Amino acid sequence: MNNEKVVKIDGVEIDSTFLMKKALTLTAVATQTSLLIRLLEGLEFDCKHGGGLNLEHFIETNGLSELTEGLTHIKEQVQEISDAICPDPD
């Protein structure tokens, strides 16, 4: 006899496979976040040490747009995980 409780969220069984998928997504989000942080640290270092040309190049080549897209993607992924593990009550 199995005494293990089964948890379902919106009809989806929360098992080790479900949790592993969410953990992998969170790991990918953490990696993306780290890369964006490194990019910002590089720009900060460049600005502090008088390297304005690199910042201008970054802006001129749509770096800020790509940075915004990356942050927006991270936000969406985190919200998706949040919704999956704790959906809004109807």
TrEMBL record:
This is Uncharacterized protein. It comes from Enterococcus aquimarinus.
